[in-house]
Amino acid sequence: MPRIDYQSGNQLQLLHTGEMFFPALLKAIDLATDEIYLETYIFANDQSSQEIEAALGRAASRGVRVYVIVDWIGSGREQSIELQQRLILLGVECRIFNVWFKRGLVRTHRKLCVIDQVIGFIGGINIVDDLLTDHTPPQQLPFARWDFAVELEGSCVATIYKEITAQWLKLGKMPLLNRLLLARDLRRHVVLKNVQGSSAAIVFRDNLRNRFTIQRAYLKALGKARTTAYFANPYFAPGRRLRNGLINAAKRGVDVRLLLGVGEFDLQDLVAQSYYSKLLKYGVKIYEYHRTHMHAKVAVIDQQWTTVGSSNFDGLSLFLNHEANILINDPAISRELEAHLQVGFEQAIEITAETVERQSWIQRLKNRLAYTLYRWVLQLLTFGEYR
């Protein structure tokens, strides 16, 4: 299993919601002079995404090489084809990930961008308007989608660039020998020493080289937690090891809090609620966020370790899909993100043991049946790895 290499020399900016993310991305695209790689799960067709689409076209028109990867399911089966056709007319190359499940059930859920090999973006924000759901047809949200990304310059950009260019090559026609050589090259780590800036690492999850890298990063950070461990995640259905990691930290006296997005999918909410009783029993605090669509996949531990990325706490993200997170050792970034999480906790509804005890037997039965169904399906999809 690949080791996690933290590299110094990173200039990082935390971007909260599309209000910060889209202007930063548009500015970087408009300043591009050489090449742009963009990979996303959802590339919608709304005002915000049309602005990104137009900016990519402007870049291509001035001679910048532009490459876009979108997921066939995430962006919509017909919509992704239409997007590809529009981008080609603009001079932008576009490849669609796993059309008709030719590569199995895996999806690319990553949200990555590298511009001129200098500026990178990573996080949980798709190319979709902040005030619209990503369903078809889209519906208006009461407030901007609650999500995060990170803009970065420095040593970690090279790691993202190597991964996203490899993804581009693999989606094209590539001889088997070249694929094996590419896999070998991706195992090589470039670590820069004694460079000023934040210490950070980029971690990926796939079904070949990095099967458990993101989960291992969470478990390692939880195992070292001493005072606080705050998480935000919209789709909560962790495997046994991650559940035990949360519980063990709480049993040591760590203030473990979960800010969970609810209200998007009824089945997902029932599955998440099936975990509440045991987690609460051991002191894990749970908050449900109802104010708007909470899409963030972030964590802060001991005001020192931070992660922002695309990986949910569910079987699809941890055991099946392609994901990407940034891990950061920087107290300033941790304090900034923790301040956002504290606001989220205040805006959310805390779930207590008494809340769970007041549930009707019908509700408890629904939770149990949803969990059983979910576990059964995920065990089939992950060949028994999801527990």
UniProtKB/TrEMBL annotation:
Gene Ontology molecular function, alphabetical: cardiolipin synthase activity
GO biological process, one term: cardiolipin biosynthetic process
InterPro entries with a match to the protein in the record: Cardiolipin_synth_ClsB, PLD-like_dom, PLipase_D/transphosphatidylase
Active site: H109, K111, D116, H295, K297, D302
Recorded catalytic activity of this chain's protein: 2 a 1,2-diacyl-sn-glycero-3-phospho-(1'-sn-glycerol) = a cardiolipin + glycerol
Documented EC number(s): 2.7.8.-
Membrane topology: Peripheral membrane protein
Domain PLD phosphodiesterase: from-to ranges: 104-131, 290-317
Subcellular location per the Swiss-Prot or TrEMBL entry: Cell membrane
Record keywords, A-Z: Cell membrane, Lipid biosynthesis, Lipid metabolism, Membrane, Phospholipid biosynthesis, Phospholipid metabolism, Transferase
A GO CC annotation given for this chain: plasma membrane
SUPFAM superfamilies given in the database record: Phospholipase D/nuclease
Top EC class, one word: transferase
Record family assignment: Belongs to the phospholipase D family. Cardiolipin synthase subfamily. ClsB sub-subfamily.
HAMAP family associated with the record: Cardiolipin_synth_ClsB (MF_01917)
Role summary: Catalyzes the phosphatidyl group transfer from one phosphatidylglycerol molecule to another to form cardiolipin (CL) (diphosphatidylglycerol) and glycerol.
Stated name of the protein: Cardiolipin synthase B
Gene behind the chain: clsB
